Amino acid sequence: MIRLSLQDGTQHHLLEVERLPARIGRSAECDVRLPGDATVSRVHAFVVSTEHGLEIQDAGSRNGTFLNGQRVEGSALLTAADRVRIGPFVLSLVGDGDDQQETVEAGGPAASRVRMETGLSAREIEVLGLVAAGCTDQQVAERLFLSVKTVHSHLDRIRDKTGCRRRPELVRFALDHGIV
Question: Is the whole-model pTM more than 0.85?
Answer without folding.
Answer: no
